[in-house]
Design a protein that fits this description.
alpha+beta; two-stranded antiparallel sheet; 2 helices; about 15% helix
Length: about 60
């Protein structure tokens, strides 16, 4: 399984992107972030640092 970012709740802080060990998080429209589900290793590092809890498992 992978993780997904709810873009409506994302505040574009970038905390998740800086902790991803496989660099599967990229910046998209409005500086929000998106997870490449094919690369995500489901470690949960991103979800643990998200200040608004907008990252969840698929």
């Amino acid at each position: 399984m992978a993780h997904r970012i709810n873009k409506e709740e994302c505040i574009a802080c970038g905390a998740c992107q800086s902790v991803c060990p496989v660099s599967c998080i990229s910046e998209v429209e409005d500086s929000k972030r998106e997870i490449d589900e094919d690369i995500c290793i489901d470690c949960g590092a991103c979800a643990s640092v998200c200040p608004v809890s907008c990252i969840s498992q698929i």
